[in-house]
Amino acid sequence: MNPNPALGVVYHWLGGLASGSFYVPYRGVKRSSWETYWLVGGVFSWIVAPWTLAFFLTNDLGAVLAETPASTIFWAFFFGLLWGVGGLTFGLTMRYLGLSLGMAVVMGLCAAFGTLMPPIFRGVFVTQVLDTASGRVILLGIGICLVGIAIAGLAGVIKERSVPPAAQQAAIKEFNLKKGLIVATLSGVMSACFAYGLAAGDPIKQLTLLHGTATLWQGLPVLVVVLLGGFATNFVWTVLLNARNRTGHQYFSARCQVATAQPSPHHTEEVAFTGPTAGVLTATTSTLIQDTVRVPLLFNYLLCAIAGVTWYMQFFFYTMGETQMGAYKFSSWTIHMASIIIFSTLWGIGLNEWKGAGKPALRLLALGLAVLIVSTVIIGYGNYLGAG
Fold it and tell me: Do 206 and 283 sit in the same domain of this protein?
């Protein structure tokens, strides 16, 4: 099959749409802790979807994995473990920064590390990138992409400074810029390991092609191994959180205890205060009322399943896009990151995360998105030159 960079860009944009949208269903989950719904969704992301689609769309999945050298399995799984750390902190980033700003910071770092390291890992960075006109055009596009990501991030910072804390937390309940930037940085660096895992899994692609798998689906068996590593990391951490926070029952219980503060009209206390009007203030106190409420367990599972499968589809389309990019498939990662930021930012706007941010922040945001779109066009043109 001859490469088709234009089609590859379309696939990558579909993957970006999936990635930029997957967290939205989680917002509808009711009365469930983050660690609980993250693991439930993750089972669909890292186990159910990759194994199911690889089983039906590739030939001899079990035989291919059995024939794969142990070193290849190890490195693909190992980079999946490291990426799992990025996946965990990515979820926390969404909690603390929201879709727009969180995506911009994480994807910026992820784009830089994940795009350039695979060709270096393969030993072809100089010959296929620096020494070719198409490779240099692609590098220009990557540089412009990083500029666009920086502009989008700056828009997020300006927004954070202009929006009152109460308004920020109305859109993002646990908004915390400092904590969010720390976990976003860790997430961005570690998430790039996914690209390394895909590069390490190249021998699996060759084997599945030998077994008669169509070129378009050659990356699916690699996803099975890399995502298994990511599942291991996320499983251990979320179960530990379940144990620490005593939230393990949430996987099965349709009811939970909720504590609400209720004023007590029959109980007052006198609070002394000082100053020019020193005296005694009579205040009504509140009491905590424990109440049992119903949990929409089945609906929560459905939302988690939708979120998990949607998340997986980003890499389903990503591996399809890679098959169309020819010798310059390393640029796939940058296109993927840019499209994620574009779609997640649009979701953030739709979910009122930028409400009250002010015109300077919105102008910067629009500029950042425009630069990102230009970068994908330039990268696509570089791939076109290479294919020609």
Answer: no
In the 8-state DSSP scheme, what is residue 47? I
- Counted domains in the chain: 2
Distance, CA of 159 to CA of 161 (rounded, Å): 5
Query: Is there a single domain that holds both residue 279 and residue 130?
Result: no
Render pLDDT for 244-276 as a digit per residue (tens, 0 to 9): 999 888 898 877 665 555 555 555 444 433 333
Give the C-alpha separation, 131 to 141, whole Å. 16
- The identity of residue 35, as a single letter, is E
From the list 29, 5, 44, the residue with the least C-alpha distance to 316 is 44
Decide the pairing of beta strands 279-294 and 255-273. antiparallel
Identity of residue 36: T
The model's pLDDT over 127-149, given as tens digits with 9 standing for 90+, comes to 767 777 877 887 887 788 778 87
Q: Which two tokens stand for residue 290?
A: 């424990």
Asked whether residue 323 falls in the same domain as residue 195, the answer is: yes
Residues 118, 230 within the same domain: yes
Q: Return the bridge partners of 284, or none.
A: 268
Residue 309 structure tokens: 């499968």
Q: Could you identify the residue written with the tokens 């390490």?
A: 200
